[in-house]
Automatic annotation (TrEMBL):
Domain PpiC stretches: 182-282, 285-395
Coiled coil: 194-221
Record keywords, A-Z: Coiled coil, Isomerase, Rotamase, Signal
Keyword S-adenosyl-L-methionine: no
One of the record's GO molecular function terms: peptidyl-prolyl cis-trans isomerase activity
Top-level taxon in the UniProt lineage: Bacteria
Signal peptide range: 1-29
Organism: Adhaeribacter swui
Entries under Pfam families matching the protein: Rotamase
Official protein name in the record: Peptidylprolyl isomerase
Length: 457
């Protein structure tokens, strides 16, 4: 078991570490009493690794049940070094991510944090910072994570695994080290977002038109933005979004903003976020600064009822065998994370579709607890990760009882572990090749780890 788990852990260590950096905001929330003595322990060109990064990552690993040994400490440090090396090489090789992608990811994460803590006000109170400040704090970390993901994808995109390699990998695991898996389930979902009723859209548009008239009659845009805007980040700043470059904001907003002269008001325009009234503040070269008032049409009970009826029709087609659940999810689900995977939820630990029963979201657990394999629920109310109202149907594809790992029942998990190991070997090869191409300075305290030695594949 130790052999199997060790290989699985080391194979996934790198992506876990890069995620740790981005989720620092939540890690700090969970570990407010942990205050290591900070300082730079590694430099890689312009990149630095702080002692706090190492200790925080080790604390997270420990919270997941992994004992913190000297060997693990060195492995974590090596992975942090590899992340820094990739970021340094990305800068040299001009590997970049678009600001629009960074902004989109920041918006998604803010919506997730708000949903978890309950409201924007509670989030701001907890950290004693505005949402704008929280986004600014996370921006560089999110950007680094996206660059790391892009680098990792480029370095491992051609790595594949064959059935023979999976079998060979499994057969190399000592029989007494095979893990014993608890009850695991495969759960699928098809999600439909609540469609906003036209009457609600017309109400929002009309309210903005009235606000526009008030501004044209002399009232202050910023004051009205603070009073009415439903953009939680910018409302407190009088609707001010700050400077952006082209393609960093949604197309509808940008197109309307760039037609304006400083001080001019736009027509009321619609985007995926709702309805906007925009005022151009200033142009500065290729950048422009705007403020806006955002109104979001409300979903009504009728909207949810219509969405449920649409989902019920999809469910009836699946039950009647006129379409498979996987096909229906791919063609009809509004959930981008699962639709291309047959609607199946992923295990966050290893990416497989098999989720330990004790790790299933409580909101799903109590629903599937009495379901038979192959059955599908009636439409259920659902709120997406970014806070949108929706309905979904859940499908219990399988329910695997506790068992020792074997190729027949656990091929997907074993294949994922074998592929991760092969990808890690590709990363190790890249590390050995590129470590001498940048300046690296390591605190002598960690000489015993010998983390710059070539990694054997």
């Amino acid at each position: 078991m130790k052999y199997f788990l060790k290989n699985c852990f080391l194979a996934k260590l790198l992506p876990v570490l890069s995620l740790c950096l981005v989720l620092a905001i939540t890690t700090q929330a969970q570990q407010r009493t942990f205050k290591p003595v900070d300082g730079i322990i590694i430099k890689v060109d312009n990149q630095i690794i702080l002692r706090s990064e190492l200790e925080t990552t080790l604390a997270q690993v420990a919270s997941e049940g992994q004992p913190v040994t000297p060997e693990l400490r060195c492995n974590v440090l090596r992975s942090l070094l590899m992340n820094s090396l990739m970021l340094a090489r990305a800068e040299i090789d001009s590997v970049v991510v678009e600001d629009a992608q960074v902004n989109s990811e920041l918006d998604r994460r803010m919506a997730y944090f708000v949903q978890q803590i309950g409201s924007e006000e509670k989030l701001e109170e907890y950290y004693n910072k505005s949402l704008r400040q929280l986004k600014d704090d996370l921006r560089s970390q999110v950007k680094n994570q996206l660059v790391l993901q892009k680098m990792q994808a480029e370095l491992t995109e051609k790595v594949t695994i064959t059935p023979n390699e999976v079998k060979k990998y499994f057969n190399q695991i000592p029989k007494d080290s095979l893990p014993y898996f608890s009850t695991e389930v495969e759960i699928g979902q098809i999600v439909k977002l609540a469609q906003i009723d036209k009457k609600e859209k017309d109400k929002a548009r009309a309210r903005l038109e009235e606000i526009k008239k008030r501004i044209q009659n002399g009232e202050d845009f910023a004051a009205l933005a603070r009073e009415f805007s439903e953009d939680p980040v910018s409302a407190k700043d009088g609707g001010n979004l700050g400077f952006f470059k082209k393609k960093e904001l949604v197309p509808e907003y940008e197109a309307a903003a760039l037609k304006l002269e400083p001080g001019q008001l736009s027509e009321v325009i619609e985007s995926q976020f709702g309805f906007h009234l925009i005022q151009l503040i200033e142009r500065r070269g290729e950048q422009y600064n705007t403020r806006h008032i955002l109104l979001k049409p409300a979903s009504t009970d009728l909207d949810m009822e219509q969405t449920a009826q649409e989902l019920d029709k999809i469910r009836n087609r699946i039950v009647a065998d006129s379409i498979t659940f996987a096909k229906a999810a791919k063609d009809l689900s509004d959930d981008a994370a699962t639709k291309d995977n047959g609607g199946l939820l992923a295990n966050p630990q290893d990416g497989s579709t098999y989720i330990p029963l004790d790790k299933v979201d409580p909101g799903i657990f109590f629903t599937i607890d009495t379901m038979k394999v192959g059955s599908i629920t009636k439409p259920l109310p659902y709120r997406t990760e970014d806070g949108k109202q929706a309905m979904r149907i859940l499908y219990l594809k399988s329910n695997m009882p506790p068992h020792q790992a074997n190729l027949k029942d656990d091929y997907q998990k074993i294949s994922a572990a074998a592929l991760n190991e092969k990808r890690q070997k590709a990363m190790n090869t890249w590390f050995n090749k590129n470590k001498s191409t940048v300046f690296i300075d390591i605190d002598p305290e960690f000489d015993a780890c010998n983390i710059l030695q070539s990694i054997n594949n």
